[in-house]
Amino acid sequence: MTKTSKKAAQHRPWIEMLDQAIHSAKGEKISRKKIYSYLEDNWRIDMTNEQRKAYFKQALEKRMKEKRIEQDKQSFFFTPLGTKAYTEEYESSEEEDPEEDAKPVKSKKMEEANGGAARKKQASK
To answer: How far apart are CA 80 and CA 100, in angstroms?
Structure first.
């Protein structure tokens, strides 16, 4: 019997990685070569692999069809729509910190220790 299961990807979806690479240019144009370099450095993806280049190209074409990315010669940049969408999708979720509203949790040992100390004080009065 042969296994047909595939190994799960160890990185984020190509669209997200592309968005992050273009965002790293901080509003400037970024070349395909620099995007490849960003993916190799930050995600350890070997961009010499033809299949990976195909996935990258699909993600790039999708973003260009959505009018989020434009091409100028061999460089790419976010459109105003792309910048707005990036901010809404990725940066707004980072600002929301659910731990800020969380109450501190005390362990039972701490409660017993504090409760025991409070009982001793009340008993001594």
So the answer is: 32
CA atoms within 13 A on the CB side of 71: 11
Question: pTM of this prediction?
Answer: 0.66
Give the C-alpha distances (Å, rounded to integers) separating 102 from 75, 77, 91, 93, 99.
45, 39, 21, 17, 5
**One CATH from 2.30.29, 3.30.1330, 1.10.10, 1.10.390 for 14-93:** 1.10.10
Cβ neighbours of 40 (radius 10 Å) = 13
Tell me the three state secondary structure of residue 31. Answer: strand
Strands, E assignment, the chain? 30-31, 69-72, 75-78
Instruction: Give per-residue pLDDT as tens, 71-98.
Output: 999 999 999 999 999 999 988 755 455 4
